[in-house]
Write a structure and sequence with these properties.
Length: 445
């Protein structure tokens, strides 16, 4: 029977030393930057609601790409230079610029009236009424895309509490088989569907777009406001009996096929969309705000929302800058720390060195002579076996006699000790201390 022997030798490859970094500096920078960017993006999406799913749900609003949606007109105006925004927060409805409302048929009329009434002193408003009842297409349909719809019928809105003196009518326009035509604002075109056309009636309506039979497809509300934008227009209705010059225009588009994706497939409809926007006094570069709160996308303000909106955005940016600086400092310190010397080393030599440095910085060298001489005298008394009860004078005399017995020509201990105690300069202290140390080695061997 044969087998495979497993060796116990070292594994091939380069071993990583203990304490070494498993990651390179570039890898760490990449991980930190990507992680920080994703975290900030997550906070921004949570706070603003952007990126948290698509609004292309087949409904009639600025994010809808079905036949009944208004994504085409929003994209067209953006390409024409207008500052287009799709807002999901009620606070944004108070911003300057043209507000485009696309309420659904079941919206609360009082809520629409509240928004429009507040906007009359802020900026122009354009309201598009809904008509089509749409449902999602069959998923089995070949070539179907997300947001596509199938038309199941038509119905006018019932907004009780909003412009109750204005009525809407849903009826065919034109002869059977003949195209339904419209004209107004110096333009003309054909509706994509003439069997169900929505029009408006009311004494305060000033027609902007009419059908071939004279019915009102789009109009401006004559409530006494003054609109200099239409001063040279053929319709120019608002110049008489000005009641409130501060009111901004209110434009009503009754037939949604003038501006929805169904109608925006035609060039003349795109030109009409820009003409209606300009009728409200809006020029390229000015804001055009498409409301989505009435379509069920409303979001309440929270701390994250405030963190990414002025004036709190400045504090958020400062916090991010501080975090970046801290991260940069941490990156420079990344890896095993370099071995540094102790502030106070171990051992007698270090203790003596630190003590000497303290005395030198204190400029008290002259105080060292006396204690050093006393210390050497005590060691000599013990080394020579002299009685410990001897006082300083008798001890120095005994040491001098012992030194004279060994070296008659040597300078006495008492003389050297007195010289050390009188020394004030570092050179004199060191010289006298060395002489005493040599005398100690001579007597004690």
């Amino acid at each position: 029977m044969s087998g495979v022997a497993f060796g116990t030798g070292p594994v091939a490859g380069t071993a990583i030393p203990v304490g070494a970094n498993p990651f390179s500096r570039r890898a760490v920078v990449g991980i930190v930057l990507i992680g920080s960017a994703l975290f900030i993006a997550l906070l921004w999406m949570i706070g603003t609601g952007n990126g948290m799913g698509t609004g292309n749900d087949g409904q009639a609003h600025a994010a809808g790409k079905g036949l009944n949606g208004y994504a085409a007109v929003a994209d067209f105006l953006d390409r024409r230079g207008f500052a287009v925004r799709k807002v999901k927060n009620e606070g944004a409805l108070a911003k300057k610029g043209l507000l485009v409302l696309t309420p659904p048929a079941f919206a609360e009329g009082e809520e629409i009236d509240r928004i429009v009434s507040a906007r009359r002193y802020i900026g122009p408003t354009l309201v598009i009424t809904p008509k089509w009842m749409a449902g999602p297409v069959d998923r089995q349909q070949k070539g179907a895309r997300r947001g596509w719809v199938r038309i199941m019928g038509a119905s006018g809105p019932n907004w009780q509490g909003f412009l109750d003196d204005v009525g809407v009518t849903l009826s065919p326009m034109g002869k059977a088989g003949a195209p339904a035509r419209w004209h107004g604002m110096g333009l003309g075109g054909v509706l994509p569907e003439g069997k169900q056309v929505l029009s408006g009636q009311g004494e305060r309506l000033v027609p902007l777009v009419e059908g071939q039979d004279g019915r009102i497809l789009a109009a401006m509300l004559d409530d006494g406001g003054y609109y200099p934008e239409l001063e040279d227009h053929a319709l120019a209705p608002m110049k008489t009996e000005v009641e409130d010059d501060d009111l901004y225009p209110l434009v009503l588009v009754f037939e949604p096929d003038l501006l929805d994706n169904y109608g925006m497939a035609r060039l003349e409809n795109a030109r009409l969309a820009e003409a209606l926007v300009r009728a409200g006094g809006i020029s390229p570069g000015d804001p055009v705000i498409f409301d989505m709160t009435l379509n069920g996308f409303g979001q309440s303000r929270n701390l994250l929302t405030l963190a990414f909106t002025p004036p709190f955005l400045a504090a958020t940016l400062c916090l991010l800058l501080a975090a970046t600086m801290i991260g940069w400092r941490a990156f420079l310190r990344f890896g095993p720390p370099a071995s540094t010397e102790r502030a106070i080393a171990f051992g007698k030599r270090a203790l003596v060195s630190n003590s000497a440095g303290l005395v030198r910085r204190a400029r008290r060298l002259h105080l060292l002579g006396g204690p050093y001489a006393d210390r050497i005298r005590e060691r000599l008394v013990r080394g020579l076996g002299l009685p410990r009860y001897l006082d300083t004078v008798h001890a120095e005399e005994a040491i001098d006699r012992a030194l004279a017995a060994r070296d008659p020509e040597a300078e006495p201990f008492s003389v050297l000790a007195a010289r050390l105690k009188r020394a004030r300069k570092a050179h004199d202290l060191l010289k006298a201390a060395r002489e005493l140390h040599a005398l100690e080695r001579k007597l004690i061997r």
